[in-house]
Amino acid sequence: MNIDEYIAAQREDIQEILSRVRDVIRETLPDAREKMSWQMPTFWKGRNLIHFAAHKNHLGIYPGPEAVEHFAPGLKEAGYRYSKGAIQFPYGNVPFDLIREIAEYCGKMSGTEC
Predict the structure, then answer these.
(1) Which residue, 29, 15, 93, is CA-closest to 63?
(2) DSSP states of 13-60
(3) 60-84 average pLDDT score
(4) What is the per-residue pLDDT for 114?
């Protein structure tokens, strides 16, 4: 399965959101290669930079623990749920500008896999 097929296989009401997330990350990380990893759309450049995935009630963004820790204060303040390496955005409130910032951060990190 490739990313186009992944998006097409999701509920119609979230396909546009997933496509927009993909476009935002693609624009932010133009040198990254798109692939499927861990059954999720992934942007890769020598390492996995960032993943995203559709869930029943939210969009999952998987930028890795370092990025989540970096953005945790703002995520907490905005009321978004997050864990060690994952962030949940409700479909009705997807912050595309924040996703752009997170992707940019992941692209600049020299550490381990996101």
Answers:
(1) 29
(2) HHHHHHHHHHHHHHHH-TTSEEEEETTEEEEESSSEEEEEEE-SSEEE
(3) 95
(4) 47
Q: Give the burial string for 77-103 (b: 16+ CB within 10 Å, else e).
A: eeebebeebbbebebeebbeebbbbbb
Q: How far, in Å, CA of 111 to CA of 114, rounded?
A: 8
pTM of the model: 0.90
pLDDT, tens digit (0-9, with 9 covering 90-100), for 43-68: 999 899 999 999 999 999 999 999 99
Tokens 């905005």 sit at which residue? 78
Quote the CA–CA distance of 47 and 78 in Å, as a whole number.
29
Q: Which amino acid is at 101?
A: E
